[in-house]
Amino acid sequence: xxxxxxxxxxxxxxxxxxxxxxxxxxxxxxxxxxxxxxxxxxxxxxxxxxxxxxxxxxxxxxxxxxxxxxxxxxxxxxxxxxxxxxxxxxxxxxxxxxxxxxxxxxxxxxxxxxxxxxxxxxxxxxxxxxxxxxxxxxxxxxxxxxxxxxxxxxxxxxxxxxxxxxxxxxxxxxxxxxxxxxxx
Length: 184
Fold this sequence. Notes:
Layout: H1 2-20, H2 28-44, E1 68-69, E2 78-83, E3 91-98, E4 103-108, E5 113-119, E6 121-126, E7 136-139, E8 143-146, E9 152-155, E10 160-167, E11 173-174
Antiparallel strand pairs: 1-2, 2-3, 3-10, 4-9, 4-11, 5-8, 5-10, 6-7, 6-9
Helix pairs in contact: 1-2
């Protein structure tokens, strides 16, 4: 699988290099070194976002997804960056995996949030305090779109995977600062 990913990265990197060079292409040895540097950065990134550009399309298979801990969420959640950089003003696609019996305290985000449930059931509610009795169960295939600074909370009964699409820079602000795992 890694060989396929590296091959795909070589193709994408070659297309990007060719498109960015209005002058004649550099000597093959120089171009190969540039491509190798791009591949090294992509392969060693954690989590490894898939490189996407306007000149190429990207297909992501479930086995290509690389999960990592999420310091801004309570322990147990995992994130996979599919596209984009969350700290930059660019579109992004991430997947978040929540374990069974997970609770996400009330919080808000600085931009529009689009959440699609890929697996499991994502129980979400609006307000300033997590209340499992005041949530809507979003089953696999469901979508919720929330406006910036909308206070909301969530919980799971089973392992649940959601896909989050938005435009950065992205962030999370907890209604109660004591709930922020980055401060503990």
